[in-house]
Amino acid sequence: MACTSSNPYGVLLQELQSYFLILHFLLWDPSHREVLGIRSSMQNQVEVTASESKHTEAKKQYDVMVKNKQLELSMHLKEISQRKDQALFLAINDIRMKYEVEKLEIVNMEKEKILSEALSVATCLLVNLISDPFEPLV
User: Fold this and answer.
1) What's the CA gap between 78 and 84, in Å, rounded?
2) 20: buried, middle or exposed (CB in 10 Å: 19+, 13-18, 0-12)?
3) What confidence score (pLDDT) does residue 3 get?
4) Quick check: 55 and 63 in contact, CB under 8 A?
5) Do residues 105 and 117 lie in contact, with contact meaning Cβ atoms separated by under 8 Å?
6) Three-state SS for 81?
7) 95-129 confidence digits (pLDDT tens)
8) How many angstroms separate the CA atoms of 71 and 65, rounded?
């Protein structure tokens, strides 16, 4: 059956057949598929594998960066802890020194008080002895 201009479906069928042939030609030629944006499953798999590889590499770099940051923070915290410990040690030593100085001052004041009282008693005894040398000491 020949297509004539009087049969509108025949013209439409002829156009569809020519489009089909063009599309079939384009799809079977790999360079045309890329132009059309159609990729084979192998190309898609290669791209997926490449993307996964890039993702794995980026994750490794990220993990290394995170580990480095953790080490850096750990060192920083250790430094802060050491400075805090040193400041605490110095403060404790300062308190000990002040305590020792205060203790020595109290001991010296007690010694002075005892010496002063002993001197007073000795002075009284001496005065009593001088005033009446034969009176018994009480």
Assistant:
1) 10
2) exposed
3) 47
4) no
5) no
6) helix
7) 999 999 999 999 999 999 999 999 999 998 888 87
8) 10
